[in-house]
Structures are given as C-alpha cells and as structure tokens.
Write a structure and sequence with these properties.
98 residues, mainly alpha, Helix Hairpins, 4 helices
Length: 98
Amino acid sequence: MTIREWCAAAQANSLAHGFTNDHIPTALMLIVTEAAEAMERWREVGPGNDDVFASELADICLRTFILAEALGIDLEAAIEAKHARNLTRPYLHGGKLA
C-alpha cells in the first residue's frame, strides 16, 4: 500500500472501532505516548531487531497516519516534499540549540 492508502485504511479502522480522531492535542499526545513506549522498550532490550520495539514504531506511524487523514493532510506528499528539502540541507552536527 502507498502511504495515502495506509492513512485511509488506518483512519477507517480507527473509526470502525469507535474512536474519534478530531481532537488534535489528544492525537498528538497519543503519538508521543507511542514514542515513549518505544523508548522504554529500547531501554529494556537495547538496539536490535525486537518485535515489541518494531511494533511501537509501527504504532507511531499508524497514529500519525490517522491524524493526517483526519486533518485531510496528504502525508505522502508532505514526506516527499520534506525529504526533497532535506536532501538540499548542509551537513550539521552539534551546536544546534534545542
């Protein structure tokens, strides 16, 4: 499936299971929660091929797909545009303020 198709499928599944996806702060915090769960798993097992860690990364993607679809964002186009921009950026390492 394309990213566009994944966004539509993830949103449809979410709605079919009774979830509403129109509260943006909640949706963003759910993405953050999945990232925190991935970090927790990484701390437990370290780097490497771990099914639980991979599942948490998938959760981050799926939650992001659902949010993008709920907002009508063409995430595939946004990723393509961002990647193209990143290809033109100079190499930077360190010294960047958070």
